[in-house]
Amino acid sequence: MCATCGCSEETHTVVLEQDVLAKNNHLAEHNRAWLAARNVLALNIMSSPGAGKTTLLERTIRSLGGAPVISVIEGDQETRFDADRIRTTGCEVVQINTGAGCHLDASMVHNGLHELDPPRDSIVLVENVGNLVCPALFDLGESYRVVITSVTEGADKPRKYPHMFVVADLVLLNKVDLLPHVDFDVDRFVSDARMVRPDVTVLPLSATVGTGVDAWLDWLRDKCARVCAPAV
Amino acid sequence: MHELSIMSSVVDTVRERVPDATVTCVRMEIGKLSGVLVDSVLFCFDVVVAGTNLEGASLDISSPPGRARCRACGSSFDLDDLIFLCSCGSADVQVLSGRELRITSVEVA
Question: Which domains does chain A possess?
Fold first, then answer.
């Protein structure tokens, strides 16, 4: 206490030593346990805006034809456009609008999962907000992280946005049907992706025309077989 | 701009830990490889503390540089980016520092 005016001048240090993302990570682990208890495979699908996330989801859902069941959490700043597109495939979908937020976090996905209520032995595809920076830092409780790049974006994306690629369990190179029309070096893209994330699998495909989609579906079935109880 | 939500969670954490004290300083470690920009964090801070017991507090940030150790050859080296490659050619690298993102302490009145 200050003797002159009575104000409290003295301060003391309180040691916190706490990770800033501890709360998000705790909730993400809660989501992970909840999904595991239901044998649900959850993928966090991330890319820049316009790389083809929603188109890939539509093709994936239609190709698998309900075996296993897929449900979707859509993340966008605004609108229900993507949820409406996904709904035409016949699958259950929850739209999360983040407003000013540039990424999904574990709390949003927690609420989304409860609303979605996915059945046992199924797949939940979480389409993150289109952004190659911010979503990389936030664990949602997913089983795997899938990063999509399209050939119209440039082959240098892995080294320009390393935080995104360093967390990728799978990289999908989309829109390869446009390769004859753009200057995109696939070998350089693959080698740059592996500089950031050694040994990462890169699957070239076109969600629009279907090239290479079978390899992606095989990857998905393989991961699903490890999580979901019945043979897929 | 994930820094805004990150700083909102910093304020939430501090308010939970010291709800009744006036906070005059927040000390953080934000490593150079953390993916969080110190300039953006400083820019957000005044906005997220407004109307809380952290209003008017200073923000003291240390930024540990990236350091790594190669599991193949055992050497330690600086890491300026997320390309985990040792000069011996191995990518089997352990990050020792630079990814910190934490609140170390606060000063309270």
Answer: 9-226 (3.40.50.300)
